[in-house]
Specification:
23 strands, 15 helices, about 25% strand, homodimer, about 475 residues, Translation Initiation Factor IF3, alpha+beta, Rossmann fold
């Protein structure tokens, strides 16, 4: 392995492996301010892919994009007291412009609820103005106090924030669930990461929300990662910001609202879940380069091999995102390592012997298999089906890991035993006291109260279930885990 | 005209007309901080269109997108002294995070040269790393001291900033010109605004650049507007930030750099140039809605007319951006005014009589003409060619205005006479003293030293040309104007 490669195994030191792979895999670099990162083009292309998929789904479901400024006056941010309290410790404050001190401090947007809703209050008069369904692609800025980790926890991150206003609670509930399902589709079908969907506990919900829906994934070190959240804000913000509408019964009501977001953290999760000791493995559907062609030539056959590689490149580019690596100054072995490090799903190798045989060699990144296949009009279909197979395989591998690392705890001792290894499913009485005590005791949170269990347990009359901590009657089966 | 319409004519009070049209045309709203605006979905959709066109051209010419943080440490921003001096009065400073005072003040990005180049210095080692051609879609933040105007001058604006690094001066020069030409293509062919291309004077160039190329347009009030700029930075920044590369002769050189940008100001220019007393006129190629269908029905024929309108909508949506306005609560007349205010290029009106005749009525926004055309398989082609005609017509109208308001001044008296009405072309000796005196005297700047005149005057031996101010020998024919 070249000097450029990873110097540590994923299983040896997961955290150090992650840091090496995001830097050496050409995804990120560190900015000159602690906690901030730069996205290199290769990583930004993955973000563009995620954005393209999400944006299409948002628009199909009637949302429109708009723009809000980065700065929020302090008076506005503090208008919903609980919300402000939640974000205040992380807020970056602008106090000066040039040499002039500002009359009021301006916050760098930690999230845009307050700014958006001050404006929505002016836009909404009657039921005809509803629903209002907007989305904003921007960055959020939150001064991280905890230790930071590239793409997972940074003081500025790329994300989207959706903000909708509705004429009824039912509509807000449906919207909240719809967006969670769209997130789930993006994460499972494109990033190949299985998730557990459900509610956050009151302690863990978004500050100011009625309830928060969440998608939780499991990382290889047994820690949970929150992948996307969708909040039903009820009328909490509409009352604070006076968002009222005249209904068709000629009466005025406070509106119902939702907000929801996903961020570049999804890329971090993708790296953690799929990567291996050779580097990144990027699922084909979001890979900036799906197929890399590496011609293997010597001085004598250079021209012939290059021409053939170029013709394969031309043929494949119509259907895939292909890169032809015809650099002279590096050996094929060097190139193999580099593209493996960067996680390109498929590599095509091509030498003069292959050309004589009418074959190309195809190497899969996910399982390191190599096959020779015919270089004829079946090649394109072969590549297409192989890319699909890689996509599926990555998901199934991750799903198997998730299933194997989800444990049912019948006792608090079992919870403590399993909690280092993954999700622990257990009954909970619903009290914040038990939740806080488990947190203090074993460092684990309630990550998600899953829909299925939530519903069945709510409907059941079975009161044999007992809280894992206090042993009192419990209706909710929840997922505990340590978390990023 | 409804209350929603404009209450002032473009010719009466251009500034007030502009303010009304951007607000009532549903483009922008004011944010709660002075100088900041919100883009409503209709305006953001225009920005998305411009971004899509530009992004495609950037990628075709070998540029890649990436991400840089919003915050720049003061020490970095001040590293190129002249550059810092230029931006310092406009910089927003972050001094606190939560309750903690920061060790060093952080600037909100007024532009990213300093941050990008600090990072590029780490990425570039040898000629193999060059050229490096990156682009960033983000916002710039500059506390405006002068009076602000929506989309034209705001304290935060959406833009893109390109930053490239090259192994030779020639390559940087070519890049700088290439990007200006791409901007010109976007502005003339998509936004239908004619521009004068050329150099900025040394006084007006970007702070820290060797030279700045610019595109200047003329607004209806006779003022010039800078539409896009492309800077050849030479080695000014590479020396300040130590960006060196090992060339193939095994020697180390400082790199050559460019930077270039366009912003949402282009939308402001589009509004000013094309709009009329009824509201916006959006060129078809960037219009979020190219065709609006307004069915005209009464209770008795509602079903028939609605069904027909829907079938036309379905047919046209395959090729155009179409909106069907089938709202019950507004009259056709109200709808006509609203879509005229919002500048939709074509309107299709459809009543039961039209259906009987097998016709639809098509109203053009640019010249208010109305024609009945056959509602058959020729309709799509008719609309396509009409949209093209509108696009062309808008450009030609603007070009005619530009030509009629470009004056040649043979004397300083003539310059003073014409300067309120548009561009004044005159010879200039090249001294900053004359430039400053004209500015102090009549409030006009040298907006652009056009390429053609620049070249021909540089090559000519004709020394009969005299500076419009000092009457000394002059080689450069320049465009003076008052400006936004």
């Amino acid at each position: 392995m070249s000097m450029l490669g990873l110097t540590i195994k994923k299983s040896e030191d997961f955290s150090e492996w992650y840091t090496q792979v995001v830097v050496k895999g050409d995804l990120i670099d560190y900015a000159p301010i602690k906690g901030f990162i730069v996205l290199k083009p290769y990583c930004y292309a993955i973000w563009e892919k995620i954005r393209e998929i999400a944006d299409k789904r948002f628009k199909e479901t009637g949302h429109k994009n708009a723009f809000l400024p980065t700065l929020i006056p302090e008076s506005l941010l503090s208008k919903e007291a609980e919300h402000f309290k939640g974000f205040q410790p992380e807020v970056f404050w602008v106090t000066h412009a040039g040499d002039r001190e500002l009359g009021e401090r301006l916050a760098l947007r930690p999230t845009s609820e307050t700014l958006a809703y001050e404006i929505f209050a002016r836009w909404i008069r009657s039921y005809r103005d509803l629903p209002l369904k907007l989305n904003f692609w921007n960055t959020a800025l939150r001064a991280e106090i905890k230790s930071t980790k590239p793409l997972i926890r940074n003081s500025e991150f790329l994300w989207q924030e959706g903000h909708t206003v509705h004429a009824s609670m039912e509509e807000a509930e449906q919207e909240c669930m719809l967006m969670l399902n769209i997130y789930r589709e993006i994460i499972e079908e494109y990033l190949a990461i299985p998730v557990i969907a459900g509610y956050k506990s009151d302690k863990e919900k978004f500050v100011g929300a009625l309830y928060t829906l969440t998608l939780e994934a499991l990382m290889p070190d047994g820690k949970a990662l929150q992948m996307g959240t969708s909040h039903n804000l009820g009328q909490n913000f509409s009352k604070a910001f006076n968002i009222k509408f005249l209904a068709d019964d000629d009466k005025e009501y406070y509106a119902w609202q939702t907000s929801w977001g996903i961020s570049w953290r999804l890329i971090g999760a993708m790296v953690m879940v799929h990567g291996d000791d050779k580097g990144l493995i990027i699922p084909p559907r979001v890979a900036p380069i799906q197929v890399v062609i590496v011609p293997i030539f010597y001085d004598k056959d250079r021209e012939q091999v290059s021409a053939k590689a170029k013709s394969i490149y031309d043929m494949l580019s119509a259907r895939f995102r292909v890169h032809l690596d015809d650099r002279d100054e590096y050996t094929p072995g060097y190139k193999f390592n580099e593209w493996e490090l960067k996680g390109v799903p498929l590599r095509i190798e091509l030498g003069s012997r292959d050309i004589r045989e009418g074959k190309v060699t195809i190497a899969r990144r996910d399982n390191s298999s190599k096959v020779k296949v015919n270089d004829d009009n079946t090649l394109t279909d072969y590549i297409e089906s192989t890319l699909e197979d890689i996509q599926r395989n990555l998901y199934l591998r991750a799903k198997e890991f998730l299933d194997k690392h989800t444990f049912d705890a019948k006792s608090y001792e079992e919870l403590k035993e399993y909690i280092e290894s993954g999700f622990v499913r257990a009954y909970w009485c619903g009290s914040i006291e038990c939740e806080l005590k488990v947190k203090a005791d074993v460092g684990a949170d309630i990550r998600v109260i899953p829909f299925q269990e939530y519903r069945s347990s709510n409907n059941s009359n079975n009161s044999n279930n007992r809280c894992i901590y206090c042993n009192k009657e419990a209706y909710k089966l929840v997922y505990f885990a340590k978390a990023y």
